[in-house]
Amino acid sequence: MDSFTRDGLTFPVLDDGDRDATAVVLLHGFPQLPSSFSAVGRALNANGLRTLVPTQRGYAPANTPAGRSRYRTVDLVDDVRALLDTAGLDRVHLVGHDWGGAVAWAAAAWHPDRIASLTVLSTPHPTAMAASLLRSDQALRSWYIGLFQAPLLPEAVLPLVLGRSLRSMGLPADLADEYLAGLRGRLTGPLNWYRAVPFAAGTPIGEVTVPTTYVWGRHDAALGRTAAERTAGQVSGDYRFVELDAGHFLPETRPDDVSEAILLRVRSRAS
């Protein structure tokens, strides 16, 4: 498949590997594109898995609705369910990084019947994240979320500073340039993920019961240790925490470690 539709929107999909093989869905984050999983996807395909990487809501002209209320977590999770339904997949192994990780936590908690296993990169469970805001320096690390709530200003400022910021966080310069070029003139959709955060109040993610691996880089400038370590308390299923000597952009900078973590988790469900 090369796309699916939901809510009047069309979502491009990179679909690689044997169509009859075990399927892994990979969800990218901000300000990334599906290409962030290129190396990981190749490794998974080489190990006999099918990979589906959707362009998430707001990242393509055909799937960018107006208004921040259209970017609530419930809508983002329903996008994933629509992908599965269109592909004819009852259950998949789900992987998410950054904002894609937040969606993956919610999908696994709310729809465990559709998720065979979960692998989350960088992003702690949202409940652990919320608790860490009062117990660590996480609020300081997350200062930009408040800035992104402002209308228009982030769209004007980010093109000037985002590339430097991404490179300072360890993203290779060529990938930073690729992501910025892909979103040139179209930052409002991705920023609306942040602007929809207030709509998440009163909609708890809840406990995750599916087998889960959480991979975190100890040098992540955006997401600190307190939230990472508290995440274990939000998972009642089989849980594995992998700490890497790395930063935030794990799919691009540590694809071998990420692929290994995903494969171990997928194979644990097959054994």
List keywords for this structure.
alpha/beta, 8 strands, single chain, Rossmann fold, globular, 271 residues, 12 helices
What's this entry about, in short?
The chain is α/β, with parallel strands linked by helices and 271 residues long.
Give the total of beta strands: 8
Structural class: alpha/beta
How much strand? 15-25%
Number of helices: 12
For this structure, what is the CATH class? Alpha Beta
Number of domains: 1
Series of H and E elements: EEEHEHEHEHHHHHHEHEHH
Large-scale geometry: globular
How far apart, in Å, are the first and last alpha carbons? 29 Å
- What name does CATH use for the topology? Rossmann fold
Sketch the major β-sheet. 8 strands, mixed
CATH architecture: 3-Layer(aba) Sandwich
Strand order of the largest sheet: 1-2-4-3-5-6-7-8
Name the CATH homologous superfamily.
Alpha/Beta hydrolase fold, catalytic domain
Helical proportion, percent range: 40-55%
Mean pLDDT figure: 96
What's the gyration radius in Å? 17 Å
